[in-house]
Write a structure and sequence with these properties.
The structure is a homodimer of 211-residue chains.
Chain A (H helix, E strand, L loop, with lengths): L1 E4 H6 L2 H11 L6 E6 L5 E6 L2 E6 L2 E7 L7 H9 L1 E6 L5 H6 L10 H5 L3 E2 L8 E2 L4 E13 L4 E13 L19 E3 L3 E10 L14
């Protein structure tokens, strides 16, 4: 095992450190966030730092980098109060990755990446047509993180669209069967294989497999 | 595709909703957090809602449920200011899952789960001996999330211990080669296979594979 101190980490080249630290926190949920500006320009961007905050109410958060580095998604959410989250499947990871390129506010990543734009009745924000698991979010709160000028954006799930074949009788979603991937670092995409599901852990019994 | 509205989600049985909403946000980084209380009782708990916040300074955040549901980790962090994060490998997912059982403050999950406790010189918080990727965190800020009484705990990476064979020349960590897993929902554990790494995306070129 190799030991790296804070001083080592600080001394590294910027790209080396970015790769290393982004991988350190483990596998992530890469997701495409769809928004629209007040002027009606749709935007699509890949975000990989998502967290489940609670199931009742259904809350999900994500990290938006400082505004000068990643301005469009957060400005559109502030302006409209709604956004979509769309799972990325193995069949279109290259197109999803392409949305991380810097485009100007007037250019649509849907068009540039080749991903299909999907509008639903009475919903202002655009979905990704190719995604089989997608949901609409309503903004709850944007918390500025003073320490590095990023933002923690908290939203509430209001509408879910899911391929019904992946829903288990107990509500578990086999998102791997829809082709959803996991990401690592800033540029790695992985497919997954189920090892096990375990029963709710209790202090007086040992861990038992469901599946 | 099936559509579920907010009213549908609210009407579900609690466990069904928990499974469904926890899976919806996608694959997660399940990690064991090691802490110690002022009285010297070590604690170990599985947390799956981690986010990378930034690489310079190296910041990682996690969600702690309301204190009445999950009191020990957050209290110990508040008291001591330090904690360890330890990757979970496929070889000990059953033991890692067992740490989610409710034990009293005096009982050590290390002992109960059968995971080895590892102390390092001049570091107050305990590590998981079996983990090949682990790091020490220093508390930066605890942000209360008013909407559901959970907490967003932000820390700074100060020391990293990594199996050196997984470090790529560009700083990327092939954590899959160390056996690190990804989790889904509250009870699913998955192994991973690399599909691709892509070059930094640019607006004037198409997505290109690194590997």
């Amino acid at each position: 095992m190799q030991h790296f101190s804070n001083d080592n980490i600080k001394s590294w080249d910027r790209f080396y450190r970015t790769n290393f630290i982004n991988c350190l926190s483990g596998f992530k949920s890469a997701t495409l966030i769809g928004t629209i500006s007040c002027e009606g320009n749709p935007n699509l961007a890949i975000f990989s730092n998502l967290v489940h905050i609670g199931a009742d109410p259904a809350l999900i958060g994500f990290i938006n980098r400082p505004k000068e580095a990643a301005p469009h998604t957060i400005s559109n959410i502030e302006a409209t109060g709604v956004y979509t989250m769309n799972h990325i499947h193995a069949s279109f990871i290259d197109k999803a990755h392409q949305t991380s390129a810097k485009y100007s506010a007037g250019e649509s990543e849907f068009q540039k990446s080749g991903l299909g734009i999907e509008w639903k009745e009475n919903i202002k924000a655009p979905f990704v047509a190719e995604s089989n698991i997608k949901y609409l979010m309503e903004l709850v709160e944007i918390i500025p993180i003073q320490y590095n000028r990023s933002f923690f954006v908290i939203g509430k799930v209001t509408d879910v669209y899911v391929d019904e074949t992946i829903i288990a009788p107990d509500g578990f979603l086999y998102i791997d069967n829809a082709g959803s991937i996991t990401s690592l670092g800033i540029d790695g995409y992985y497919e997954t294989n189920l090892i096990a599901r375990f029963r709710y852990a209790k202090s007086d019994t040992i861990t038992e497999k469901i599946k």
